[in-house]
Design brief:
This protein is mainly α and 99 residues long. The protein has one domain. The chain has helices at 2-24, 33-52, 61-92. Helix 2 (33-52) runs antiparallel to helix 3 (61-92). The longest helix is centred in the C-terminal third of the chain and has 32 residues, at 61-92. It is elongated, with a radius of gyration of 17 Å. The protein starts with a helix and ends in a 7-residue tail after the last helix.
Length: 99
């Protein structure tokens, strides 16, 4: 259980840092201020949720399974948010057609 918690901390940092770098090094970060700050906030909150979600004081196998399910829920929610950000960015990018 501790192994799962320790190994999944890196993912939270990765998503927060990746979003920040994607936003800052975009073509026009100033025009994307709302989405940039909102994205940073979402990924930092999800990172904090991962770090604060500890398996302290769990004794029964049912409690441990519940903790593990919730922790994986956080991981999947973070992945979903990253995928949605990528999908929204892809649809917002104009396509160039050549004649």
């Amino acid at each position: 259980m501790d192994d799962t918690r320790i190994r999944t901390r890196l993912g939270g940092f990765f998503y927060a840092l990746a979003w920040l770098l994607t936003w800052v090094f975009s073509a026009a970060p100033g025009s994307l201020m709302v989405s940039g700050v909102l994205g940073c906030t979402v990924f930092v909150v999800l990172l904090a949720a991962r770090l604060l979600h500890r398996p302290d004081g769990l004794d029964s196998p049912e409690q441990l399974q519940c903790w593990l399910d919730r922790h994986w829920g956080l991981i999947l929610l973070t992945s979903l948010c990253w995928g949605q950000a990528h999908a929204l960015g892809y649809t917002a990018t104009p396509t160039v057609t050549r004649k």
